[in-house]
Amino acid sequence: MGFRAGDDDTQRHMKIPKIIHQTWRTKDIPFDVYKKEWIDSWKRLHPDWEYRLWTDEENRDLIKKEYPWFLETYDGYPEGIYRADAARYFILYHCGGLYADLDFQALKNVEPLLEGHDIVLSYVGRNKRAVHALSNAIMASSRKASLWPMVFREMKKKKRKTSSVDIATGAMMFKGVVMRYLTLRRMPFLGRIFFDAKIKIYESSYLCPLDWSTWTLLGERVPQNLKSDPAHFLPDSYAVTYWKHNY
Q: What is the model's pLDDT at position 155?
């Protein structure tokens, strides 16, 4: 299964800036958890892209300087993972580009997946109806895409109602907003004006080929050829995540 262009094939072009974003608490990534080769894979396969690692301090500075109306919500989250979730949405809105968690390894240059789209997302696993079926761990976006203000409003609303990270800032919240946005976009006339971002959601095989529950169950019994040569083991995938679930 190679890349198959969608309906926008005749108008393919890059709306998404060539910037790769990742985040960690500080500039000192724990390479015993996140392998250096995973981070380097993004730079190696995207040599003409800018790479930026955002720290917790830089994330907060972005919110404070550019989106101060969200700072109280941001500072009020009970744990860092909430802020890490929230920050990635603001980074994509403010800068555009591609965000990937540190446990993602690039297997190919992702540009063919991004061309002609304002936002590119990925399903996780085969059950698209699952509450966690849409990943917020790898996402790409043009600057100021109209999806993100809906995400910001939802996070402010959820902050008043729940302490669950999945519901407040994570995949459950994100999937709900994206599905609502796509429904509104189908409205005649006004939908295409106010909800104008072209969103492409890829099957999990493209960017998240390892089902998180299977990977967790496999543990250290992962096939050796996946560990040593993931690009060969997953020839149709552009990236893979190893589901470290660590922050």
A: 96
Provide the edge-to-edge strand list for the sheet that holds 97-100.
Answer: 50-54, 19-23, 97-100, 138-141, 119-122, 199-202
Instruction: Retrieve residue 243's tokens.
Output: 């589901």
Percentages (nearest 5) of helix, strand, coil residues in the chain: 45, 15, 40
Cross-strand partners of 22: 53
HSE, side-chain direction, 13 A CA sphere, residue 215: 16
Reading the block at residue 135, the tokens are 């990943």
Torsion angles phi and psi, residue 101, rounded to 5: -60, 160
State pLDDT tens for residues 204-230: 999 998 876 665 444 445 566 676 788
Measured distance CA(135)–CA(171) in Å, rounded:
6
Domains by residue range for the chain, with CATH: 14-143+198-241 (3.90.550)
In whole angstroms, give the CA distance from residue 187 to residue 32.
Answer: 49
pLDDT tens, position by position, 138-149: 999 999 999 999
What are the tokens at 191? 């939908």
pTM for the model stands at: 0.90
